[in-house]
Amino acid sequence: MTHPLLEALQVNEAQFIALRRRFHQQPEIGFEEHQTSSEVARLLGEWGYEVHRGLAGTGVVGTLRVGEGKKRLGLRADMDALPMQERSGKPWASQVEGRFHGCGHDGHTTTLLYAAEYLARTRQFTGTLQLIFQPAEELLYGGRVMVEDGLFDQFPCDAIFGLHNMPGQPLGKIGLRDGAMMASSDTLHIEVKGVGGHGAVPEHTVDATLVACHITLALQSIVSRNITPFERRW
Predict the structure, then answer these.
(1) Cβ proximity of 95 and 21 under 8 Å
(2) Are residue 14 and residue 87 in the same domain, yes or no?
(3) What proportions of the chain, in percent to the nearest 5, are helix, strand and coil?
(4) What's the Cα-to-Cα distance from 161 to each of 54, 55, 134, 180, 226, rounded to whole Å?
(5) If DSSP codes are grouped into helix, strand and coil, which group holds residue 76?
(6) What is the Cα–Cα distance from 10 to 17, expressed in whole angstroms?
(7) EC top class, in one word (predicted)?
(8) Residue 204 domain-assigned?
(9) What is the CATH number of the domain that holds 49?
(10) Tens digit of pLDDT for each residue in 4-31?
(11) Which of 36, 53, 78, 222 has its CA 20 to 30 A from that of 136?
């Protein structure tokens, strides 16, 4: 038996599949999501949301108030693509050189818009809904910039849910937890200082290149050979 919620969502399934593919064809990297954010704002406005733009430059917040409820719920998705070349050959592949929705943020944006349309159409809740469309999640800090620009001062939330696709998760299953859910991609800057000397007596020197190579191998082997990044160690 199909769940009533799924039946209600399937009414517009083709529309949102097409929307996701349009986003995929026109990817924009961090803080450059001008077309994407404009389309998000347009759709939210059509569905009756108060639309707020400008946080972190290209961020969008849609607000919907229903009934007299005092609770405020935030739902967040990211919009940016990666600076990569797509070679999938799909009919909806990226049409922008050096830009690719390789992490699925086109799907995240569409998923939140899908929810936005359903919630505005059914209004089966009471309270305030804040839909947060974040720029620059990849490699940059769009979420932090939105907060620094006053996101939660202007749009306070009693609870907030973010989402990310997770390859390997069984179809129809949702992973949920408080706090961090997935491993982050971080950058380390390490300076190795060697000690020079004569080539005839290398044992009197410190070869910075060799040391750096060993550091690289050791760090790389942490998550590939020693611990899983999905297991907390603190």
Answers:
(1) no
(2) yes
(3) 35, 15, 50
(4) 21, 19, 13, 11, 31
(5) strand
(6) 11
(7) hydrolase
(8) yes
(9) 3.40.630.10
(10) 888 888 889 999 999 999 999 999 999 9
(11) 222
143 and 191 co-located in one domain: no
Write out the DSSP string of 99-158.
-B--S-HHHHHHHHHHHHHHHHHH--S-EEEEEEEE---SSS-HHHHHHHTTHHHHS--S
- Is 172 within a domain? no
Same domain assignment for residues 90 and 200: no
Orientation angle between helical segments 13-25 and 34-46, nearest 10 degrees: 160
Instruction: For residue 125, count CB atoms less than 10 angstroms from its CB and return exposed for 0-12, middle for 13-18, buried for 19 or more.
Output: middle
pTM: 0.86
Supply angle C-alpha 28, 34, 36, rounded to 5: 65
